[in-house]
């Protein structure tokens, strides 16, 4: 199978590389029937060829940054798998006078099938979040489905956290600067949509081990923004929520993402898709840290997100649920309306309070 695979530190411009690859791939696939498609985002041919149009540009780590507010750099985690991360550090941090900063490991959304830590919308959002919430952000670029179906994204999320642990214990010269600013006892896993799903499942894997597995890191909480979960039984918001034509997530797109990302032949009640499929009693056994869940009012995932929150509360977990009125899925990265911008500022303020409590 072929796919676009880009590291933004390569000398060529990512957007140009995406365009050229797409044109070549499109020419090669014109005679091949389509097996799955989400228009404008991904097309999978029956012969396994994968196209991802460059609908959102990839940008370098220094793109459009106010150096007085935040600095950013890209680092390799595993060169063999091309696992890398983009790190954002607030510029106004002074180690002599200030306390060390919370460390937020972030996973981007995209239904496990599209997206990148180099996408301009994530670059902008996370740079602003680091500056306004006062935290170091490590934005992980994991491999995508269907070429790399789940649990690849979970494995790479876990490996990214273990890499940070190793660096914290024995930092390389390349990473000493940003690591010195981090409070290793204040680690948070975060993400939006599929990235929130990854953050949740990585946390359950970490929690299944002893605390020594993470030490000197300590997982303090989760920030789950519109977590991408599913199930065979439709919720009311999945069936009846009116979605605009440019909605970031429709029901048909959701179903396609799950068909492309779950192990072949799995239903949407697979535990990676539906964490409640085994019953809420199962959640009582999990060591889930304090969890903040951000829900969007007009998102098709609204009711599923609320069911998840209620199940966690019933299982005795600490959960903070916030509803963002009048906005839909991925509003914080994909929509520029005045109301979306206002809700995004509210979200950043809520995240700041959660990670500093």
TrEMBL record:
Top-level taxon: Eukaryota
Active site: 193
Pfam families on file: Abhydrolase_3
A GO molecular-function annotation: hydrolase activity
PROSITE patterns for this protein: LIPASE_GDXG_SER
Domain Alpha/beta hydrolase fold-3 intervals: 104-332
Family listed: Belongs to the 'GDXG' lipolytic enzyme family.
Protein name (record): Alpha/beta hydrolase fold-3 domain-containing protein
């Amino acid at each position: 199978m072929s796919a676009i695979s880009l590291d933004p530190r390569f000398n060529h411009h990512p957007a140009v590389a995406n365009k050229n690859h797409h044109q070549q791939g499109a020419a090669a696939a014109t005679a091949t029937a389509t097996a799955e498609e989400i228009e404008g985002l991904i097309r999978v041919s029956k012969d396994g060829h994968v196209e991802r149009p460059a609908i959102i540009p990839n940008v370098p780590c220094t793109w459009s940054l106010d150096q007085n507010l935040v600095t950013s750099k890209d680092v390799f985690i595993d060169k063999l798998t091309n696992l890398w991360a983009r790190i954002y550090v607030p510029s106004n941090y002074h180690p002599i006078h200030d306390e060390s900063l919370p460390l937020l490991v972030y996973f981007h959304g995209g239904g496990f099938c599209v997206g990148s830590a180099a996408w301009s919308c994530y670059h902008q959002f996370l740079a602003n979040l680091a500056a306004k919430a006062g935290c170091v952000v490590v934005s992980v670029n994991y491999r995508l489905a269907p070429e790399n179906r789940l649990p690849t994204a979970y494995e790479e999320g876990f490996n990214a956290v273990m890499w940070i642990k190793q660096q914290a214990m024995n930092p390389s010269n390349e990473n000493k600067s940003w690591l010195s600013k981090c409070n290793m006892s204040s680690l948070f896993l975060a993400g939006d949509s599929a990235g929130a799903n990854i953050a949740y499942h990585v946390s359950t894997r970490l929690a299944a081990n002893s605390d020594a597995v993470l030490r000197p890191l300590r997982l303090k909480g989760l920030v789950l923004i519109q977590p991408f979960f599913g199930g065979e039984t439709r919720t009311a918001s999945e069936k009846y929520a009116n979605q605009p034509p440019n909605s970031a997530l429709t029901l048909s797109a959701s179903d396609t993402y799950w068909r492309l990302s779950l192990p072949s032949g799995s239903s949407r009640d697979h535990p990676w898709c539906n964490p409640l499929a085994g019953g809420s009693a199962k959640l009582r056994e999990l060591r889930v840290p304090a969890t903040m869940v951000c829900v969007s009012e007009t998102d098709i995932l609204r009711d599923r997100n609320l069911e998840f929150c209620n199940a966690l509360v019933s299982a005795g977990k600490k959960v903070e649920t916030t509803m963002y009125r009048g906005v839909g899925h991925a509003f914080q990265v994909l929509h520029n309306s005045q109301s979306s911008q206002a809700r995004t500022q509210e979200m950043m303020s809520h995240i700041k309070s959660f990670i500093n409590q």
